[in-house]
Design goal:
Blueprint lengths: L5 H19 L11 H8 L10 H12 L21 H12 L7 H22 L6 E5 L2 H23 L8 E5 L4 H10 L2 E5 L9 H9 L6 E7 L11 H10 L3 E5 L24 E4 L1 H4 L7 E5 L2 H8 L7 H4 L20 H10 L1 H24 L3 E3 L7 E6 L4 H13 L7 E4 L2 E7 L7 H9 L3
Parallel strand pairs: 2-3, 2-4, 4-5, 5-6
Antiparallel strand pairs: 1-7, 6-7, 8-9, 9-11, 10-11
Bound molecules: pyridoxal-5'-phosphate.
């Protein structure tokens, strides 16, 4: 509904003004969540037949709702995986919104999809995939993993059919015990089994463990092997080369879940950690995690996109004009039809700043992780759980139980210093710094460590 009037223009300016204020915050307020009751007391019922008017709604957002919504780009937000978009990427998300782009089909979204595809092609070549690989941007790693695994299963079924081989038992895919929860979610949705192989003591999944787990499964039941390129908990990178070779020898699909960590491949200094990534049949990486793009975006790439197209294309009378066009339709490569061109903010920022800045920023995050690990080693009251690999640092406050972590964490948030929640490993509480924000400094993290004394 595009209508220009003095009233819509005035509101537009006010919204732009709010955006300018938000982008200019220095420091960014971390903010603090409120309960439903507290929010209702302050905001009341916000919807009515006649509306409250844009001015009032905007003020309500600015004064009541936004302060109760944590800013995940605050430099002290280091829990889960934070989000640290460049200003160019964030602002360009407004352009995507303002432009009413349908990103599902080339016919409708050609120009925008052209730009998104250049990002996918570029990243695929960094990972080592050949020309001709491609995919699409989907909303997150969960949907990306699911889409890749559904494609892998289809590929497996076709191979079985072609060879006349018999399947014994239920279909399954193989992953590490340290793999992300979204893989278990995918297995549930697909109604297949997930075989969890035991990682080595350092948390890394080895080729041998994969071979052994594979040998224990009924013939032809395993359709894919998933390796993680940077676990969310620890930043551990599985033996990609070894596992990829096992997959190849067994004619199995090799998927790399790189939602958080695969961005690390951009750093020349740490690229070797991803040796073997070029063997992947598919991979994912989330730009909203470590490629400095706003929520929400996952780049999903296949070595052979044709199999994905045959798997995911939706058919229907009103759609055939698109599916029969022979054009590149991003919706054909993942689960879902209507699609926001969520890769465009990343494209704009990459085109603006150049790839080298990304390499530097990622390398800097990893360097900060290694430096703060040294600080932890030098302190009496804290202890590393594991040496960091990428930009996640997991450590314990010696002698603390979960309650003490919780109390400390809540105070840290109330004081708007940081968002650092308790985590655990093998039943023991700990906490972690996930560093993907170039504004997250050793100094700030040291201050957070000091607050645990
Ligand atoms: C975050 C993450 C996912 C899930 O991605 P979403 O974008 O949150 O859906 C999957 N795998 C790994 C390794 C992750 O870190």
């Amino acid at each position: 509904m595009h209508q220009n009037s003095d009233e819509t223009r005035a509101l537009r300016e006010k919204i732009f003004e709010y955006v300018r204020t938000r982008m200019d915050y220095d420091p960014i307020p971390l903010d603090y969540p409120k309960s439903e009751q507290e929010l209702f007391a302050a905001a009341g019922l916000t919807l009515s037949e006649d509306g409250m008017g844009g001015d009032k709604a905007l003020r309500l957002f600015e004064e009541v709702l936004a302060p109760a919504t944590i800013s995940t780009d605050h430099p002290g937000f280091v829990s889960f995986i934070p989000n640290a978009p460049t200003e160019a990427a964030s602002i360009f998300d407004l352009v995507v919104s303002a432009s009413s782009i349908y990103g599902g089909s080339w016919l409708e979204g050609a120009g925008a999809i052209f730009a998104e595809n250049q990002v996918l092609t570029w990243f695929a070549s960094e990972v080592g995939l050949p020309k001709g690989s491609g995919g699409s941007f989907v909303q997150g790693g969960t949907i990306g993993n699911l889409s890749a695994l559904v494609t892998a299963r289809q590929s497996h079924r076709e191979k079985l059919k072609a060879s006349g081989a018999q399947l014994q038992g239920r279909l399954s895919f193989l992953a590490s015990k340290e793999a992300h929860s979204s893989l278990k979610a995918a297995a549930k949705v697909m109604d297949v089994e997930i075989v969890l192989a035991e990682p080595s003591a350092d948390g890394r999944l080895s080729a041998q463990a994969v071979s052994e787990a594979l040998a224990s499964q009924p013939a032809n039941s395993v359709f894919a092997i998933v390796a993680t390129g940077g676990t969310t908990n620890f930043g551990i990178i599985d033996d990609l080369r070894g596992i990829g070779e096992v997959a190849q020898r067994n004619g199995l699909w090799f998927h790399i879940d790189g939602a958080y960590g695969l961005a690390g491949v951009l750093s020349p200094k740490y690229k070797h950690l991803f040796d073997g990534s070029e063997l992947a049949d598919s991979f994912i990486v989330d730009p909203h995690k470590w490629l400095f793009a706003p929520y929400d975006a996952c780049a999903l790439v296949y070595r052979n996109p044709e199999i994905a197209r045959a798997t995911h294309t939706q058919h229907g009378e009103y759609l055939e004009t698109l599916t029969e066009s022979g054009l590149w339709n991003p919706s054909d490569y993942s689960f879902g039809l209507t699609r926001r061109t969520r890769g465009l903010p990343l494209w704009f920022s990459l085109a603006t700043h150049g790839v080298a800045k990304y390499r530097d920023a990622i390398e800097y995050n990893i360097d900060v992780a290694h430096e703060i690990a040294d600080v932890i080693r030098s302190m009496e009251h804290v202890e590393l759980v594991r040496d960091p690999r990428l930009s996640v640092v997991v450590f314990e406050r010696k002698g603390w139980d979960l309650n003490q972590y919780k109390k400390w964490s809540d105070k840290l948030l109330k004081d708007e210093i940081g968002f650092v929640v308790p985590s655990s490993h093998k039943g023991k509480p700990n906490t972690r710094f996930a560093i993907v924000n170039p504004l997250t400094s050793v100094k700030l993290l040291t201050q957070i460590l000091e607050s645990m004394k």
